[in-house]
Design goal:
This protein is mainly alpha-helical. The protein is built from 13 helices and no strands. Helix content is 80%, strand content 0%. The protein starts with a helix and ends with a helix.
């Protein structure tokens, strides 16, 4: 009765914030699911994540905050929303807020090892953003060791972050080994298309540093196919990287012909 009316009013208000090409499909899906309370919280989190994936980070907090307001009795959905709110702060460059929120999530997850892993991974991402790559590498190795058996999603995001560091610091064989672990997890459904695509771009960069242009192109073309229309900002980035590979390959070929 009253609770349902209140939730419907809140959803109607939030719908005004979800305009654009993705808004209508989000809300059509949500309206279908909202009559099934066990799924409604997950649907609300998913809406927020889809907005992040569409690079609509100014709209995502409205949807994710609604999880706390409308589904406080779903603690795992609430923590999941908090993870994505930390990601929003990171993308906005609000690293102090992201750090504070991640530390609070870590403290609030004392009896929940999965979200402790998530909080530790977010704190590691923030350190890397602050230029503290090498000191973070051992922490990431610890996260992967603690997470790989039971929590593949944060485990593979930790691996992606390791790839960032290993490629940047030119540790090619270690980078390729970590990328291959993500590829192997994808084959068994333990890593997502987004994680695999992100891993492949670092793999492509590693091959490029070794002047292995064919392998770099293969990795980046596969990443581009995986990103597709679901992650348009990633697809644009991969196209840029592919252009860089082709330019390097062309320059190298021209130089060889001159000699």
């Amino acid at each position: 009765g009253a609770a349902a009316s209140s939730l419907a009013a809140a959803q109607s208000a939030r719908r005004k914030h979800s305009t654009g090409s993705h808004g209508a499909p989000f809300w059509r899906a949500h309206r279908r699911i909202s009559r099934r309370p066990p799924l409604a919280a997950k649907a609300q989190v998913r809406i927020g994540k889809m907005l992040i994936d569409a690079n609509r980070v100014d709209e995502a907090p409205v949807e994710l905050s609604a999880v706390m307001n409308d589904f406080a009795n779903r603690p795992r959905a609430v923590k999941r929303a908090r993870v994505f709110l930390i990601e929003v702060a990171q993308r906005r460059g609000e690293l102090t807020k992201a750090d504070t929120d991640a530390r609070q999530l870590l403290a609030d997850s004392a009896g929940d090892p999965e979200f402790q892993i998530w909080a530790r991974t977010k704190l590691a991402e923030i350190k890397v953003s602050q230029g503290r790559q090498l000191e973070t590498l051992s922490e990431l190795e610890g996260i992967v060791a603690d997470a790989q058996a039971s929590f593949p999603e944060p485990c593979n995001w930790a691996r992606v972050l390791m790839l960032n560091i290993l490629s940047d610091k030119y540790m090619p064989q270690r980078a390729l080994d970590v990328a291959d672990a993500i590829v192997a997890d994808h084959a068994t459904g333990r890593s997502s298309d987004e994680q695999l695509a992100t891993a492949l771009i670092w793999k492509g960069r590693t091959f490029l540093k070794q002047n292995d242009f064919a392998s770099a192109r293969d990795a980046l073309f596969t990443a581009l196919a995986l990103a597709g229309s679901s992650h348009p900002y990633m697809a644009h980035y991969f196209m840029h990287e592919l252009g860089h590979v082709f330019r390097r390959d062309s320059d190298d070929t021209s130089h060889s012909q001159l000699h």
